[in-house]
Amino acid sequence: MSASARSNRNDNETSVSVLDKSPTGGPLAGLKVLDFTHVFAGPFCTRTLADLGADVVHVESRQRDPGDRHRSAYAHRNKRSVSLDLKNKAGHAVAVRMAKVADIIVENFSAGVMRRLKLDYDTLSVVNPRLIFVALSGYGHTGPRSSWTSMNMNLQAYTGLMLTTGSEGDQPTCISNSWNDYIGGIHGVMAVLHALAERIDTGRGRMLDMSQFECSVSTLGPLLMASAISGKASKRMGNRSTNAAPQGVYRCAGDDEWIAISVQTDAQWKTLVKVIGKPALAQDARLASTVGRMRLHDELDAVIGAWTRDQTKEDVEAQLQQAGVPAERMRRAQDVINSSDAGKVYLPVPGSKALAATCPFSFGKTSLAAITPPSLLGEHTRAALRDWLCMNDAEIDALDKARALI
Questions:
Q1: Which CATH number fits domain 3-220+346-401: 1.10.287.130, 3.40.50.10540, 3.90.1300.10, 3.30.2130.10?
Q2: Which ranges constitute the DSSP H helices of 237-296?
Q3: Beta-carbon neighbour count of residue 403 at 10 Å?
Q4: pLDDT, tens digit, for every residue of 334-353?
Q5: What CATH homologous superfamily does 247-330 map to?
Q6: How confident is the model at residue 76 (pLDDT cuts 50, 70, 90)?
């Protein structure tokens, strides 16, 4: 089976893929995004642009990633997939032609890869001065670490993020939910929106050399500043806080059930002790301030835990919330998905049993792009080449024969 036939499962007269045509709707409708991303940071950035209505065409090759390891609805929904061999002369020429008409290119390869492919900003901006080019690598394209290979956990170690999680004495622990990828992807979207606004005035695009390391460090500002001033490493707080006490998770009735409580003010403290039946603690001068309560945190945890352990987390939550004390029960994933307050946060991915988180905002009367499932590799090669480059079937067949579409 030829590459183009293999890659277009629905490209015929009787069955048309939901993304054979460019998506419509959303504030970025009409913008073309050429996506050279992989793993998660770059794909999350372009997925968000697709959610906002941009026509995102993901350039892939079976030679690089023959599997579907990262083909999830969180990374690759709402995109069209084109299969190109960028090292093939004809395939490379197609990529350049697509770059000429693109508004935005996003890539997150190691520094130097796109330059070696002659698909870097300096090369492509000559043929498309309006091009906005986002390079979202681990450490940026300049400096002593530009050649480093980076992954989520490694970046968490190098940024110091690991020493802000867990408690004193714990092994350094990373946030498992691809923290740096999400943070890098979100910053990439912010940079694109800024560059689009700037282009309205200047008529020109720009190169956005982004470092996931810098994106991550930017979220640690207060901790880094405190350490710089004191000359000491920030203490690992676990579930505690430097400005709220008592704060923590407390065991409730049932198997591994918990309530999270965070007392932010002195007034909330007085309310808490009244609710738990210990009003005398409100008169204890040692506990009149957050600093004082922090000194006696272990003792307070024991008092609160004795009250919560024989009650359900729902009952504890209801009592404290009604009284005005911040408290939320610990929920598991299925609890969140099944709850009525999830609203439209999770929506089903068409054609599958999977759920995907939507964009957590709305634009009033302007609809966001409807969720479409992740594309098969190269599924929209013909449709996207027709849309972007006005190619006919004969031209695409010639590319297929030249083995450019693999």
A1: 3.40.50.10540
A2: 266-275, 290-295
A3: 13
A4: 888 888 776 667 777 877 77
A5: formyl-coa transferase, domain 3 (3.30.1540.10)
A6: confident
First to last CA, the chain: 12
Q: Report the DSSP beta bridge partners of residue 266.
A: none
Residue 294 gets which letter from DSSP?
A: H
Decide: helix, strand or coil at residue 95.
helix
Alpha-carbon gap, residue 401 to 69, rounded angstroms: 28
Say whether pLDDT at 9 is over 50. Answer: no
Distance CA(367)–CA(365), nearest Å, equals 6
DSSP letters of 10-50? Answer: T-SSS---TTSS----STTTT-EEEEE--TTHHHHHHHHHH
| 287: Cα separation from own chain's centroid | 41
pLDDT, tens digit (0-9, with 9 covering 90-100), for 294-338: 999 999 999 999 999 999 999 999 999 999 999 999 999 888 888
How many Å apart are CA 15 and CA 17, to the nearest integer? 7
